Amino acid sequence: MIALKSAAEIEAMARAGRILGALFRELQPRVQSGMSTRELDVVAEEFIRSHDGAVPAFKGLYGFPASLCTSINEEVVHGIPSERRLEEGDILTVDAGVKLGGWFVDAARTFPVGEVDEGTRQLLDVTWECLQAGIEQARPGQRLGDIGHAVQQVAEGAGFGVVRDLVGHGIGREPHEEPQVPNYGRPGRGVRLQAGMVLAIEPMINAGGVAVRTLPDRWTVVTADGGRSAHFEQTVAITEQGPRVLTAS
What is the pTM for the complete model shown? Predict the structure, then answer.
């Protein structure tokens, strides 16, 4: 069942979203060579908890041990923060969530570590464009397939692969709600979008093939071919006025 949110409930989610957007602004200058992902996780937890009533949504969720998911290079999602240190030319995906007043929001950014090669820069730019294309379809009367199709067209048009095994999702009182939001699909198919839906739209785009696998830690998902992967995500409310990004940074 898809839970529609009232205008007041969307505004409550937006309050959480502003904290999450500010977190990415806080983290961005710290994503540099020599920084460990565990150090970033400590900064993130302290920052989130410094806002009255806000807590990291991921810590303890399904048993996850940290406040951030930190995924480097070929790691697609769900990387666990550790003592591993970033190196010049890496890319780091930071996926984070905030819970405030019983409402969840979720977002992700992929950051370059210093200077990256042209192919990696294109991967980041195209994945961001995929996210914007998907958000543009998040309007009343459109279909769920319109979001996935828009993402897929941008990614595949640039020669990149769209991860199939992982999808976006509804969000609200729970961190994962109906509907699932694939990053591929056929236009005009699937659930009709309505004002009051809130979706986590999150393209995960690979430089190589679409296949992924999970590491023995049972969390970290990597590309099967070792190619790099980028991931951008926003929590987006569908309103009569169009899509409203709740986690903008």
Answer: 0.97
